[in-house]
User: What shape does this take?
Amino acid sequence: MVTLAWHVKPLTELLSHRGHFPHSLLIHGPQGIGKVEFSYSLVQSLLCLAPVNHLSCQQCVACHWVAQRQHPDLMILNIEGNVTLEEDAAEDKAKDKKSTTINVDAVRDLGPFLTVGAQRNGYKIVLIEQADALNINAANALLKALEEPPPNVLFVLVADQLKRLLPTILSRCQKLALRAPNAKESCEYLKIPELEALSLLAVYGTPLNSKRALEQGVEKLRHSYLTLLTTPQVQLTELSVLAQKIPLEYWLDWTHKWCNDLISQYFLQKRFFHIDVAVNLPTVEKVIIFDLLAWEKQLKQAKRSLRHPLVPKLLIESLLIPWLSLNRSLYLNP
Ligand SMILES: [Zn+2]
Assistant: This one.
């Protein structure tokens, strides 16, 4: 479990105060900067049997257990591991439905873990990977534990958005804000030529998100999708078939960013996202800027309320139809 380069300093600083830790620590910052990775590095360093300069040795049995997510003094709560019986039933209706919250049962299940002493006479740690996904009952149950923390128990909460946490939980935690990596750190992390790295960062925002897009193999679809999208008088069927091969959240994000590129082209003569795609960028005329703005609003709303629909094709096509007339106006030969 390698600590990300931009985390080494805040982690070492935090660990140098390990004798004076609070009972609950809240790690927050923008999505995709590696907060969960930071938390595992922290947990590993705290549970390590032979830390080096406060950091985990990565060699001992405790370090291996944490890397495998199987340390007896570590309890992990996340949305992936949070499928209840009720949700199982619902899954029959929607096979692809993913849980987006951590519910009260997961927090109640912590009970026995919190009451039994640590196996190895050190910390017992509860790591909540998405504290902003705790539903209201789960948050209230957690609050009880935070109010009367058992000795030697450390709660590590991770959150993208503090505003989604109960104020009572916020007030119980010591907060640690993590910053995003700078361009140099991001390029070094991606280990690809700088120009290529900067183009990916423009689309995906952070090096971790960029790496994920590369590893999942979706990034290579982006160029072909944008090329087809900007083909003069492209047909809906053709576009829809290709769009359906792309994971929905990527497709929606790319399309939204393409729309924003056209808008910024009109206002600022510049695009910010798909900077590496050599598409023939048309001049946006005043007459269609309002249509573009309306399409942007539609895409933004779809992004906000994105739940995996039973028939993605319908959502995709309803969002592509406005583009067809925009495409005709933009790419029609005079
Ligand atoms: Zn170790």
Remarks:
- Residues 248-268 form the longest helix (21 residues).
- The two ends are 58 Å apart (CA to CA).
